[in-house]
Amino acid sequence: MERKKITISDLSRIKSEGGRIAMLTAYDFSTALVLESAGIDIILVGDSLGNVILGYDSTVPVTMEEMIHHAKAVRRGTRYAFLVADMPFMSFNIDKAQTITNAGRLVKEAGADAVKIEGGNETISAMIKAVVDAGIPVMGHIGLTPQTATMLGGYKVQGNNAAAAKELMRQAAVLEKAGCFSIVLECIPDVLAELISKKMKIPVIGIGAGVRCDGQVLVTHDMLGLYERLSPKFVKRYAHLAKEMSEAVANYIQEVKDAKFPLPQHSYTMKKEELEKLGL
Ligand code: KIV
């Protein structure tokens, strides 16, 4: 069967049929090609870019220019997956005009299909509504929102008491009403994520939110074991690529030092008569 580009309708159909949506992050062309060929549904150019690619301590310093630069590269490697780009901290927090302009840049300049915005309070949901009204699909993100982790008391589970759980349920409903086509729930108890997923008509994608969400997302560098500085409980490592890469690099270094690389099959030859013409 011919493969077709995934749309928002496909994502909501997956939910209504009881299926699951698979989403991963990418920040460059070649990773996007790998995710695509494996059949991923959604590729997220996450602002986790700040941590795993740019070496910042958090996602806070990530700029619009950095997001656009990386999202453009991912766009070139993405054909079928639905492409979402994160709006970085302070690109959607000031006023509606600036928020719409920045969301528009991620769509027009970088080629994203949609943007993701962290937060669910009144200010943020008003910004989200403005972006949706401007014709740009928005994925919400509540629970542990890394851009405002300081306000949340650090990187820790959210919604684990009745009041906080109620507030997250309220925010999810507000985001659905504001027009989000999907929301991400990060680092909340599995039973709460299940309740929200059942209540919402839009697909709910979990990260550290249990198995009963409509889909799952992980940072690709975490799940491939490429970035091992942080190890949240919710990450499953499907590979240990940092270890494999390190072994390969050590092997290369040794072969260079021992003059065992390159071999003749990695080298170019010159005809003997041409060599003789050099008269050396
Ligand atoms: O930036 C990111 O990668 C994210 C995911 C972890 C959901 O927001």
Bound compounds, each kind once, are: 3-methyl-2-oxobutanoic acid
Helix content class: 40-55%
Given as residue ranges, the uncertain stretches (5+ residues, pLDDT < 50) are none
Largest sheet: 8 strands, parallel, barrel
Q: What does the average pLDDT come to?
A: 97
Q: What's the helix-strand series?
A: HEHEHHEHEHEHEHEEHHH
The CATH homologous superfamily of the largest domain = Phosphoenolpyruvate-binding domains
Beginning-to-end CA distance, first to last residue: 62 Å
Counted by DSSP, the helix tally is 11
Which CATH architecture of the largest domain is right?
Alpha-Beta Barrel
Number of domains: 2
List the strand order in the largest sheet. Answer: 1-2-3-4-5-6-7-8
In CATH, the topology of the largest domain is named TIM Barrel
Form type: elongated
The first-level CATH class of the largest domain is given as Alpha Beta
- Helix/strand/pairing class, anyone? alpha/beta
